[in-house]
Design a protein that fits this description.
The structure holds 2 protein chains of 2 kinds. Chain A is mostly helical. Chain A is built from 8 helices and 1 strand; from the N terminus they run H-H-H-H-H-E-H-H-H. Chain B is an all-alpha fold. Chain B contains 3 helices and 1 strand; from the N terminus they run E-H-H-H. The chains are: A mainly alpha, B mainly alpha.
């Protein structure tokens, strides 16, 4: 239990730090690399929750596919640093951070008013995270959304190709 | 019952990451950084879903995470294609310069 707590603390602090670097860096490539590191930290947190399938899928899909796409686009557009970030936005950024602080205060106070939450996982948790149980649920109870997601991905592929083509012929 | 970190810490971390993503969406001008902040928000929600699924022993939360990830991938592909198309026309990715619809 103590090692889990240490792992969770390190992973959580690193996840928050990389998220802050992502939103605040002037160079988009630095933001992308920080986001990849953030996804790896989140995969580690999923492992502390006994969710092995979701952790592996997170690394494969998010860090391995989506972020590769984002880095390709950044390199294709040849974006440089954002120069005017410091002077124009100080008032807007202050309002945004204030909003964020109020928002998180609301979320935390709503949660604490509900009583705090449990600190023990049921024994089933060891089984719910495995690929077998997710597969059983996915292909029996959730078959219709599964097929719909396939259709959605097909529409996304066709749409992305059409939108990014140079000339429609 | 397994002894573990209380669920409160996972939910608090998820709320904090969601707020960081929101601040990123509101503050930045670069459309690609805005996309990355949206991915941060989606991941925070994924963390909430997975933590509830583990603490209640119900697989439905993790199945939903599967769907959220598929939707996020589709949205990233189409959104970046739109950013590319706009860049070809306007030579910029800063959202405050993309004001063609302004009257």
């Amino acid at each position: 239990m103590a090692t889990t707590a240490i792992f969770f603390t390190i992973l959580a602090v690193m996840a928050i730090a990389t998220a802050l670097v992502t939103i605040s860096s002037k160079n988009p490539v630095v933001s992308a690399i920080a986001l990849v590191a953030h996804f790896f930290m989140l995969a580690g947190i999923y492992l502390t929750l006994q969710a092995q399938f979701v952790a592996v899928i997170q690394i494969l899909v998010y860090a391995g596919a989506i972020m590769v796409l984002v880095v390709f686009v950044i390199m294709l557009l040849n974006l440089g640093d954002e120069e005017q970030m410091r002077d124009k936005l100080n008032f807007k950024r202050f309002i945004a951070v204030l909003f964020g602080a109020v928002f998180i205060f609301q979320l935390w106070s709503v949660f604490l008013a509900g009583g705090g939450g449990v600190s023990k996982m049921p024994e089933q948790a060891l089984k719910t995270g495995s690929a077998q149980s997710i597969g059983m649920a996915l292909f029996s109870d959730y078959l219709y959304p599964f097929e719909a997601i396939g259709l959605l991905l097909l529409a996304a592929i066709v749409g992305a190709i059409i939108l990014a083509k140079r000339k429609l012929e | 019952m397994l002894d573990t970190i209380p669920i409160g810490y996972y939910l608090g971390l998820s709320a904090l990451l969601f707020t960081i993503g929101t601040i990123g969406v509101l503050t930045r001008r670069n459309a690609i950084i805005i996309f990355m902040s949206i991915e941060l928000m989606l991941n925070a929600v994924n963390l909430t879903l997975v933590s509830f699924a583990s603490f209640m022993g119900d697989t439905a939360g993790q199945v939903f995470v599967f769907f959220v990830m598929a939707v996020a991938a589709a949205e990233a592909a189409v959104g970046l294609a739109i950013v590319l198309a706009i860049f070809r026309k306007k030579q910029t990715v800063y959202v405050d310069q993309i004001n063609i619809l302004k009257w």
